[in-house]
Amino acid sequence: MKQLIECVPNFSEGRDMNIIKQITDEIEKVEGAKLLDVDPGAATNRTVVTIVGTPDEVCEAAFRAVKKASEIIDMRKHKGEHPRMGATDVCPLVPVSNISMDETVEYARKLAKRIGEELEISVYCYENAAFAEERKNLATCRSGEYEGMAEKLKIPRWKPDFGPAELNVKAGVTAVGARDFLIAFNVNLNTTSTRRANSIAFDVRERGRSKREGNPITGKIVKDENGKPVMIPGSLKCVKGIGWFIEEYGIAQISMNLTNISITPVHIAFDETCKKAEARGIRVTGSELVGLIPLKAMLDAGKYFLRKQERSLGVSQDELLKIAVKSMGLDDLKPFNPKEKIIEFILQDDKNDKLIDMNLAEFADETASESPAPGGGSISAYVGSLGISLATMVANLSSHKRGWDERWEEFSNWAEKGQKLKDELLHLVDEDTNAFNKIMDAFGLPKKSQEEKAARAQAIEDASKYAIEIPFKVMQKSLESMEIIKAMAEIGNPNSVSDAGVGALCARTAVMGAYLNVKINASGLDDKDFVKEKLSEGLKIEIKTKEVEDEILEIVNKKIVS
């Protein structure tokens, strides 16, 4: 699974589109980083850019953009409404999928170091990437703005984290950070009253509302010893919110920014808003997602609403997305297209050339064609995916079986495990063909000089090892699926016990077929220790699989006969 991060650099130019394009052109030169959005503002004289992709590539694209901005933006001439201190004012990295905040922080600091050293720009690290507590807050780092930075950099406690402690008068100062994913999320109400929408927003947002004496609406605001209003916090952490009226739709909305979806995800924000609205006699009719959202956030929402229904969570990704969209009414105002709103889907290659995207007849036809791939390795992975799919089906049927209501979660857990294995095996269907292509590419390398011959031989060796690792992983995952298949034969819906039996036969076939591919790809390898290890482990997996298959079929046949 690819690691994905988002980068949202803000450049101090929002009026000259030629300058903005020169910066974004640098981003688009980097393969593996995708430019998703360019949002210039004339009044602020500032452009916000959104880049998404794999971490190294996004950091490379960000660095090139910062470099270009330092060359073509002169901060001595800059004027705008927004606070700013540099040509690239801020450059936050945001974890999107399969990457932790700690890892994102490391990437942010590496990027900051490179900007400081190679471009000679003073850099402060902020938010999660900050080295000191007082530098976490961006506003604190930026206080004094560009005009005050020359003096600020001379103060020992404001020495930059990277780069010179002397102002780069043309490029200014840049802040590089790591922060959580921010989601702009609006909840639709069956009212036109902005005041009532605001009341609900104050109920849920973290800041809450001002405390008042006596009447909570008209009473005098209570202030502390410093003269600041005393606040009554709302019910949701990491949420900002306000009520407003949308002329286009003729309804009031609660507009929220979810600043940390690991603390308050979209589904919790939606459900809590429903509760607070109902308490005030107002109904929530749906919601609206402004901008993009990570896939995991939508899948988590789907699982949350299925769990509330006490239904199995072990369903397909498409089904989870459908549940999430319908449960939160994301299609209330206009159609919700996951391909346009979910980051991972936007980044997918438009070319539909994956085996698993074919229908059954197309897949069979492609296998039967004169092309050597897909071959036995891909078929083994696919048969394995069918085996665990049958067991997952039994788990889902058992979860919803009449009279077994109290056991829904038990079977849901089995189904979730099954779905995960199914997805992994489906991925290996195409990966086995990719492994074959790597070997063909390696054999096609030039071999005129000694250096070329050595490089070609190493490439063939590496590609052959990869072509062993893939079917070996098919073996591992298919054996792993046997645990679920056996459980469903033993405790699952008895009406589907034969399906568990067929699942076992498929898993055994997948293991044995994949092992044949391990052995044939191992025959030409020079690394004999690697070969010995894989063949030995593969034989153990094959023997164990056959043993478990016999146990499952014995259980199945006894239940069928009885």
How far apart are the termini?
A: 45 Å
Task: Describe the main β-sheet briefly.
Answer: 7 strands, mixed
Shape: flat
CATH topology-level name of the largest domain: Four Helix Bundle (Hemerythrin (Met), subunit A)
Name the CATH superfamily classification of the largest domain.
Answer: Formiminotetrahydrofolate cyclodeaminase monomer, up-and-down helical bundle
Number of individual domains = 3
Q: Let me know the number of strands.
A: 13
CATH second-level architecture of the largest domain? Up-down Bundle
Poorly predicted runs of 5 or more residues: none
Task: Name the helix and strand elements from N-terminus to C-terminus, one letter apiece.
Answer: EEHEEHEHEHHEEHEEEEHEHHHHHHHHHH
Assign the CATH class of the largest domain: Mainly Alpha
Give the C-alpha Rg. Answer: 29 Å
The residue-averaged pLDDT reads 94
Question: What is the secondary structure topology, with strand pairs?
Answer:
Layout lengths: L3 E4 L2 E2 L5 H12 L4 E9 L4 E8 L1 H18 L15 E10 L3 H19 L2 E6 L10 H5 L2 H8 L20 E6 L4 E7 L4 H11 L4 E2 L20 E2 L6 E8 L4 E8 L7 H14 L4 E7 L4 H14 L8 H12 L9 H4 L1 H4 L13 H9 L7 H24 L8 H36 L6 H42 L5 H26 L5 H34 L1
